[in-house]
Design goal:
Elements (H helix, E strand, L loop, with lengths): L1 E9 L1 H12 L4 E8 L16 H9 L4 H5 L1 H17 L4 E2 L6 E4 L5 E4 L2 E2 L13 E6 L7 H11 L5 E6 L12 H8 L2 H11 L9 E5 L7 H12 L2 E5 L6 H16 L3 E4 L2 E7 L2 E9 L2 E12 L9 E3 L5 E3 L60 E3 L9 H4 L2 H14 L1
Parallel strand pairs: 1-2, 1-14, 2-11, 7-8, 7-9, 9-10, 14-17
Antiparallel strand pairs: 3-6, 4-5, 12-13, 13-14, 15-16
């Protein structure tokens, strides 16, 4: 079967590209070995740390993916993503150029451009008193640790810790966030929680942060139910993977893609073949059973080092894992083979910017991978997301902005 488009990778950029193409009536196949970084992310959309001037600097930098897509494309991508989320009854709040200031699980603060409604009351720009809830028996969140750091980071005058218990939590092992999220999806379970928590919250602040466990499928319903009965505002704080808010975004985009006719195959190892300046096929290897798929166009959304889209060898060479495309240390210059010793990939200061963060594919203005001479390698291959060179996504806070913006550019032109 021939497709209009084959997308390789199902992180945020791959899922978004697939959903956008399927919504336009294209016959789309999405191939992925496993889930992308949605399951380890915060479930928010981070465009840039800082404000509009910071974003403007990145869009003017020739080495950054934002400079290829431009500010308007980025805004259009984020706006359409918000529309899709709203259509699935999971609204995201925010806009490009403005950030929410949110607490983390260790009590530091982070910026996010778009956040789900379940995190809205945690905006630290609000100065009302708040408390963080320590859930008895739940090891993946320590409210006392978070509050001790947040007191230094925040201007909120009254910060408290409250200890809460949960009914019917798993007793044979530690509870995971996904266990509790499935429980909070159930109205009967929430009724038990309300009965148990109500006396403990009588004199607490009216804004309370809990670990991100408020349901996988019915999080807004769970939040509304608890708030109306308890007379408080609840907000979620992302914690250790698997990320419940990230899983919600994954499920939402996967469902949207499949509801519009997209085909999704997860599990195989994927490789691609380029001949005569075009990708001619993508092969999926499922435990030795290899099947070949063909399409008019291909989108590479395989991710960076974290996701296996880029692989670093012990001899210092770096390679792209699907098509064996040349990797650059920056865009458009900076092709180096080898990339030096692994010691040269990192900065001596742990929290500083590291050279390896900007390794990736160099691309032309249409996001087609290019070689060291600036020549397009395959005219029907487009690269999106974290496989692209030129951005330190962690320090910039640009990961999701790059993923959405590049996917939108490829599909929308």
């Amino acid at each position: 079967m021939a497709y209009d488009l084959i997308v390789i990778g199902c992180g945020l950029s791959g899922l978004y590209a697939g959903a956008l193409a399927a919504r336009r009536g294209k016959k789309v196949l999405l191939l992925a070995r496993g889930v992308g970084s949605t399951h380890i992310g915060a479930g928010t959309i981070d465009v840039v740390n800082g404000d509009k001037p910071t974003l403007s600097l990145l869009t003017r930098s020739k080495s950054h993916p934002y400079s290829i897509i431009g500010a308007q494309t980025l805004k259009d991508a984020v706006d359409q993503f918000k529309t899709i989320c709203a259509e699935h009854s999971y609204p995201l709040h925010g806009e490009v150029g403005k950030n929410f200031k949110l607490p983390t699980a260790v009590g530091s603060t982070r910026h996010a451009c778009l956040i789900p409604e379940t995190m809205l009351a945690g905006n630290l720009s609000r100065k009302e008193d708040l408390a963080l809830a320590n859930i008895h028996g739940f090891r993946d969140f320590n409210a006392h640790l978070a509050i001790s750091t947040l007191r230094v980071q925040s201007l909120i005058p009254n910060l408290q810790v409250i200890d809460l218990h949960l009914p019917s939590a798993p007793f044979h092992r530690d509870s995971y966030a996904t266990d509790l999220a499935h429980l909070f999806d159930k109205p009967d379970y929430r009724a038990e929680v309300i009965a148990l928590w109500k006396p403990w919250l009588k004199d607490s602040p009216k804004r309370i942060g809990i670990p991100a466990i408020l349901g996988l499928d019915h999080s807004l319903e769970a939040k509304g139910h608890l708030e109306s009965e308890l007379g408080i505002e609840l907000f979620e704080i992302p914690i250790l993977p698997p990320s419940v808010p990230g899983m919600r975004l994954f499920n939402l985009l996967r469902d949207d893609f499949q509801n519009h006719g997209g085909r999704f195959i997860m599990g195989p190892t994927v490789t691609g073949e380029i001949e005569g300046g075009r990708v001619v096929s993508a092969s999926a290897d499922m435990n030795g059973h290899i099947k070949e798929y063909r399409a008019e166009n291909y989108v590479l959304a395989s991710g960076g080092f974290l996701n296996g889209g880029i692989i670093g060898e012990m001899d210092g060479t770096v390679r792209e894992s699907i098509f064996n495309l040349p990797i650059a240390s920056d865009r458009p210059e900076g092709f180096r083979k080898p990339f030096g010793s692994r010691g040269e990939w990192t900065n001596e200061v742990f929290l500083a910017s590291h050279p390896y963060a900007k390794f990736g594919l160099s691309v032309d203005k249409n996001l087609r991978p290019i070689d060291a001479n600036g020549k397009v390698i395959a005219e029907n291959l487009f690269a999106v997301g974290s496989v692209l060179a030129g951005a330190d996504r962690v320090n910039e806070g640009s990961r999701e902005g790059i993923e959405l913006g590049t996917a939108w550019k490829v599909i929308s032109g």
